[in-house]
Write the structure tokens for this entry.
Amino acid sequence: MKDRVLAVTGAAGILGSALTRRLAGDGAQIVGIDLAKSFPADAPLALALPGVDLADQAAINAAFAAIAQRFGKLDGLANIAGGFRWETLEGGAIETWDKLYTMNVRTAVLACKAATPLLTKGGGAIVNVSANATSRADAGMGAYTASKSGVSRLTESLAAELKDKNVRVNAVMPSIIDTPANRADMPDAQFDRWVTPEALSDVISFLLSDAARAITGALLPVTGRV
Ligand SMILES: NC(=O)c1ccc[n+]([C@@H]2O[C@H](COP(=O)([O-])OP(=O)(O)OC[C@H]3O[C@@H](n4cnc5c(N)ncnc54)[C@H](OP(=O)(O)O)[C@@H]3O)[C@@H](O)[C@H]2O)c1
């Protein structure tokens, strides 16, 4: 990863922070992009782009223009930004479906679209975050899994599109990540069965690296012991 320029969306979040530390520790220069107004003070970022709404085409284009101006290249993109809502159809609102589509699919599509011209210049890799729950949706999981299924289809389609342009596109499909929010929501769960942000970051780092040069279009379950 030495001297690679890698963009991490959602870099202020739990997984994005862990991934940033992992990749920077391997010598990469990390560009952090997030809606959050700031990043943790100790985040090892070469370029911090806070306050960027990835669902806003103009904002995201400006962010990638800043990357091009600063580095002149991009070697990889990890689309970590996204979110979750549990809501039944009966008790819920159509707005939730729109919101999760925007949060998970639109953000990833726009980031991929803005990054592709930079990535195809010298070759590179994209890693998206889908969800293992897409294989079968439980009650209250319809809007979330529909949106993450969109991320899976984006991954497959873009992998095929960019196959001959030296850009690989893969996705991880985590089950439950061991985050403070999940611990608070499920206090009786066995936390040590969940995948840690660090373990998931190892997998994403592998998919971004040349060691995964033979892999594109893969949807990889990363489920710990769940
Ligand atoms: N946690 C789990 O158990 C789990 C399981 C499967 C998949 N995932 C996926 O893994 C990824 C990371 O999860 P996490 O637990 O680390 O979540 P997190 O801590 O909430 O981090 C997500 C980050 O994405 C940012 N974000 C959301 N919408 C954005 C937008 N429109 N533009 C720019 N940034 C935006 C959030 O900013 P704000 O906080 O300012 O909104 C936040 O900093 C997500 O895609 C999630 O869906 C999580």
User: Anything to note?
Assistant: Strands lie at 5-9, 29-33, 47-49, 76-79, 124-129, 167-174, 219-222. The chain has a mean pLDDT of 97.
